[in-house]
Amino acid sequence: MQPLIPAACREISRRAALLALAxxxxxxxxxxxxxxxxxxxxxxxxxxxxxxxxxNLADEALKDHRLIAPAGANAYEFYxxxxxxxxxxxxxxxxxxxxxxxxxxxxxxxINGRQLDEAARELRLLREVDNxxxxxxxxxxxxxxxxxxxxxxxxxxxxxxxxxxxxxTASSSGGSAQ
Length: 178
Fold this sequence. Notes:
Blueprint: H1 7-27, H2 36-41, H3 46-63, H4 75-85, H5 90-98, H6 100-112, H7 116-130, H8 134-176
Keywords: Signal
Signal peptide: 1-33
Protein name: DUF4398 domain-containing protein
């Protein structure tokens, strides 16, 4: 059974939780190691501490091959959270752009594997990064087409089941009338 909360709202809730976690860690004075690029982008202030923490989480997600999945714990969501705190963060912008080709491949694999809800979630992330990207737009069309195909296949299966049930009902009622 699908949750009653729309996917877009769940995604916003996850992002808010990430930001709250980063702010909480920053307030607690949690130090963050990690790459030199994130320390340059995150010098001083609690927002910057949150940015540094999120950049480190994104770096770890990349190392663990979690580019756009799973939901709530992937590099793209961490980088987008960084941009909510610091819209001019060069590291986040650069890493999102650098990994866009791999992210589009992952979305296409999800579409081809008929993981359409996951593909839609991942595609929303890519649209936040670059909604005008030609490949992202093509993937949106491919996702829509795949959904239409799945609907037609489901309708055909349902029609076959109905026909079989009607045939069984007709043969049982026709046999009992004699």
